[in-house]
Amino acid sequence: MAEVATARRSRITPERAAELYAAVLDLLREVGYDALTMDAVAARTRSSKATLYRQWGGKPELVVRALRHGKPGSVADVDTGSLRGDLHALATREDDCAMEQNSALVRGLAMAVHMNPDLRRAFRELLIEPEMAEFRRVLRRAIERGEIREDAPALGYVVHMLVGAFVTRALIDDLPPTQTFLRSYIDAVVLPALGAPTP
Length: 199
What we know:
Layout: H1 2-9, H2 14-35, H3 38-45, H4 49-56, H5 59-69, H6 83-91, H7 96-115, H8 117-144, H9 158-173, H10 179-194
Helix pairs in contact: 2-3, 2-5, 2-7, 5-8, 6-10, 7-8, 9-10
């Protein structure tokens, strides 16, 4: 099965895939998930719909792969030598403008994820599970450095805290998430919850 998927995906160059992913994200911001169609992606990217289906199988996988491709590097590659440094580095990988756009995009996709089992499955398999595995490596390094205890009660909720802060800033404060807000949140909430050193 993996060989079939590899063969299926080998037809488009990485540069062309990047162009397609950028177009998908633009369309998502413009019309939302439900109104986004493979026809619209094909028209925007001057592709054939058959090529899109052959390469990605359908809209859910194409959308989630576009989201994953748009993320700035691997979480696990961030290693500053301290948990606070790592979390701050992760919070500042994107500038404030990109964070505002992505926050709106995530909020717009939230309902679609709940209503669409295929999209939810693609999110879990292609985005959430790989990101969680990478994030666990960041936390594992902090445990090995002695910064946090392996049995810290909040350990299993770090991602929930960070995603919650990112997504709900607009809802609660009517403001977009910013680097300053996220760094402050990490220092005031996440690190104390883990019993980690704070400034």
